[in-house]
Amino acid sequence: MEARTNAMDPEKRELTRxxxxxxxxxxxxxxxxxxxxxxCMEDKSPAYVGGKGWLPYQYDLPxxxxxxxxxxxxxxxxxxxxxxxxxxxxxxxQCLEVCQSVQSVYGYYGLPVIDETICIHCGQCSLFxxxxxxxxxxxxxxxxxxxxxxxxxxxxxxxxxxxxxLGEEFGLPPGAWVxxxxxxxxxxxxxxxxxxxxxxxxLTVMEEATExxxxxxxxxxxxxxxxxxCSPGWVKFCEYFYPELLPHLSSCKSPQQMLGALVKTYYAGxxxxxPGNIVSVSVMxxxxxxxxxxxxxxxxxxKYWQRQDLRDVDVVLTTRELARILKEKQIDLAALxxxxxxxxxxxxxxxxxxxxxxxxxxxxxxRTAYFFITGEDPxxxxxxxxxxxxxxxxKEAAVEMPGVGTLRVAVCHGMANGRKVLEAVRRKETxxxxxxxxxxxxxxxxxGGQPRTAVPPTDALRAQRIAALYRAxxxxxxxxxxxxxxxxxxxxxxxxHPMSELAEELLxxxxxxxxxxxxxxxxxx
Amino acid sequence: MGRSQAVLVDITKCVGCESCVVACRxxxxxxxxxxxxxxxxxxxxxxxxxxxxTVVQSFRVEKDGSRVRRFVKRQCFHCxxxxxxxxCFAKALQKTPEGPxxxxxKLCVGCRYCMIACxxxxxxxxxxxxxxxxxxxxxxxxxxxxxQMPACVSACPTxxxxxxxxxxxxxxxxxxxxxxPDLYVSQIYGLxxxxxxxxxxxxxxxxxxxxxxxxxxxxxxPEYTWAVLRWTPHLFVGWGALLAVMYLYNRRRAxxxxxxxxxxxxxxxx
Amino acid sequence: xxxxxxxxxxxxxxxVLIGLVLVAALTALYRFIFGLGAVxxxxxxxxxxLWIGFDLLCGIALAGGGFSTALIVHVLxxxxxxxxxxxxxxxxxxxxxxxxxxxxxxxxxxxxxxRPFFFWGYHSVLFEVxxxxxxxxxxxxxxxxxVFFERxxxxxxxxxxxKLMPLLLILGIVLPTLHQSSLGSLYVIAVNKxxxxxWSMLLPFFFVWSAFFLGPAMVTLEGTLAARxxxxxxxxxxxRSLTRVTLGMMLVYxxxxxxxxxxxxxxxxxFEGSFESHMYLVEMVGFVILPIIMYAVPAISRKTWGVxxxxxxxxxxxxxxxxxxxxxxxxxxxxxPYFPSVWEFLITLGMWSALILVYCxxxxxxxxxxxxxxxxxGEGDKCPERG
Lengths: 525, 270, 387
Hints:
The complex is a heterotrimer.
Chain A: H1 2-8, H2 10-40, E1 82-84, H3 94-102, H4 124-128, E2 134-136, H5 140-148, E3 153-158, H6 179-189, E4 193-196, H7 197-217, E5 226-227, H8 232-241, H9 255-271, E6 278-284, H10 288-293, H11 300-305, E7 315-318, H12 319-328, H13 350-353, H14 360-374, H15 380-383, E8 394-401, E9 405-413, H16 415-426, E10 434-438, H17 459-475, H18 485-495, H19 501-507
Parallel strand pairs in A: 3-4, 3-6, 5-10, 6-7, 9-10
Antiparallel strand pairs in A: 1-2, 8-9
Helix pairs in contact in A: 7-9, 7-14
Chain B: E1 5-10, H1 19-28, E2 55-63, E3 66-74, H2 83-87, E4 93-95, E5 101-103, H3 113-117, E6 124-125, E7 134-135, H4 141-145, H5 151-155, E8 161-165, H6 166-179, E9 199-202, H7 221-229, H8 232-250, H9 259-262, E10 263-264
Parallel strand pairs in B: 1-9
Antiparallel strand pairs in B: 1-8, 2-3, 4-5, 6-7
Chain C: E1 2-3, E2 6-7, H1 12-34, H2 36-39, H3 50-62, H4 65-75, H5 82-106, H6 115-118, H7 125-151, H8 155-185, H9 203-229, H10 236-263, H11 267-270, H12 275-296, H13 298-301, H14 304-328, H15 331-334, H16 342-365, E3 369-370
Antiparallel strand pairs in C: 1-2
């Protein structure tokens, strides 16, 4: 071969090496020269740093920008419910839109701010945020740590609304009923007790219906209409914007807090567990529940046992956080067998199941109130109270209560609708005895902690979840809260009767005006 | 354009959403590290950084006997007669006719004299880079030159930021103070500080309690330097001439001596 | 160690110094690769630290012996000081080189160092400093060229330089006068940052004046040290007569300082009890008034130790003053403390070690120190602690 012969020839090889080195040196020189030339060339880029990024299209327009799509809501770094990742925010303005238009919070207080960022923790912004920048404050690590701690007795309760949405995180359609799988998954995670918030929902109905009747009969010396108090976002909204209407709020705690209070008192006693060793976890569709659990007055068990360190609910997880834990532990919810809730504080009736839907609390309360007043089971029309069902913003109904007369009720969801109702109540123009408020559109099934969808949640999605709840209600033998046998046992052996002294201590609360935290709009600068 | 543009920051209207911070990051393609992330930051004012040209600082202050919280957007003040630009000996920092004081990294030597000179201490240096730049708000010069407002202003949802001709901005500020004398303090920060700045602030809390630098002279800072520096040529010529005359005059006294005889290398071996 | 015509004796102290220089060089390499933040404790609140505050500002001031000696010897033709002239000029040159190296280490975008030659930010004090220091270093190198060509025996070049010498000498006084003062002017713009005890429109005057009266003291100090190191007789009579220059200028300095304080109404701040006021009092009493007294009292100024001690105080005082301006006076504005990192100290140490080594090499190989009439024998040598 020619090349080989050349290479073997010492003289030729010398030449090749030399030319090779020449080539390397030459190309190096060329490279250096071109680099030098390139460096000296006039650079066309602007002669200052910055301005090389992009902005969403609407900001590149001079002057006037569409008012409804810009900026974002303020989220305080110490917000107990929500956090935001600045690196993901694109300033689309969706959070602002939902906070202002759907919840009527942002823009409904005067500036300058006083000393806190006004937030009802409803978490709707986290559902509407297209990039996932806003999300719940993550408490999964606390739960995992408690589960890993052998000395802790970890109790979990699950809200009515998570069982029709958790499946969505595992590929099931909206409204898929995963109650049994959820229980199985929680047991698999290692929770020592799996309780049903529905049990406390039934309890809430018993207490709230009793309170309603007392108000109507004039025994309670509290004004009508009575407002429901299950939705912590709504409660904070009322404390902020309508403090003068706080006496209308039912003194009942939300089911989460009722169950939390009972877990560390009644339940601990029955199971013989030191309440100090119990970690009380709840799985909620709601971000505001994280705030509610941290309200200083939510420590009934501490007062009961005279132990300062107790909190009724220690950690609140949202549906999304539970799904995250399950995925992290590689538990496929859809593939799990169905299991039952624990026997103690695990029973529910249809009245509790529908708590997750707008109008549900009202319907359940009406069923039980009928029983309390008449001593008889409610007729079929009460078991299917269609006027308070559905996704209309404000719903009204009038039902005949034998011996009392016409009971007029109203139901609203989304605080913009709530605001309309409240304004009417403030003007004393309303005939209602009882009004249900839910902070989130659709009720708890549309809560800020529910699985996120590709687009902001729609009414179609909400309707599917709601339909699943009513189907479950219809399929249950016991439809009204007073029929709950475990509940009857609770009253018999512990609380005695609704609104007893002990029930007041554990299950009822009071509210505080937050009017000093925000400036009325009319005085805004 | 040609007229100097300015931004009015009305602290009473800020809710602390930090939209401006995000807009700045997006428009200027800044990639802040994890400390700018969403997790709770320690309760203390956020600080400007090479990758954060604007921040919103939160202050809890006493006002009329109660504690209130105020948010203050911070960025370069864009002085009318900027100390940093006068301090730069390579012309890397320059005041543009539109108002912004901009930085050209190609000219920068990295001596950081600008940082010594800046009375508001807004310049940030890339300490961890081999060829660090001095970074700060550029007031979105490209947008201003294109008849747009700075990115932060355009993203503000509450109207806390207003952009326009400096004259009109001052008139607007005075109008607000006039219509709400109960609310605002009488000072407009930036009106006279350091000879006037392109970012002006209105507040209902005295500025010194919101971390604004006090004691910034009203005279433009470059004037101080210039008062000294302008003597340089005179000194050079005058002192040089004097020395020359003295040299010539004193040469008479020179005694001839051989330098080669006088000095010698030291012998270290001893 | 001898290579050709050149000799450099390697002794233990010199090995240590060489080691320090090597450590500093490695640190400098690390700094160039990983940035200032990796090596220094500098921050956005403390943009200037040890290298600028000490190596540059103090180094340049200490090198002030060059121009004051040049003025006294070559312009005023006080020829009796000729024996110390070359040494003074040499230390000045090495001092400037150290300052330039430290500046080069300190600037972030060092490949742009030539920019100010072409983009004239003439409104900046630093512009004047930069030009003057660059030109003056060049002038000093040319001045040293005379000595160099004398040693390497190139009479033509030496003659050429000698012809240029009057111009070089005058430039070599005008330029340092300008930039010594400009180093003070640097801080004139820090109106609201530098503590009012130090901030003054007269900062440039104080800087150039102190750099000038520092010269004789510095010559005394380094002459004594060099004499010790090389077992020679110090030029005590010369040093003693130089004290009169220092004394006179320091009296003026003190007077102007007091008048300035009074004019600016800063007298009350003297006794405000703050850290700054204490430091200021120490600076003025310990390093200005005390040496003035020592120089003025014949019982002290006649003694060799007296002159030496007073000179040490003057030199220390100027260093103290520069550090006060850069650090003490700026601390409040910075809002947080600064203390140089180990690496910053190592680099500084390495540079001053290099200065000593270069000084030793040059005086041992070039005709810089006066010819000895009688040299006292002794074994080993000790390098001066300080140039």
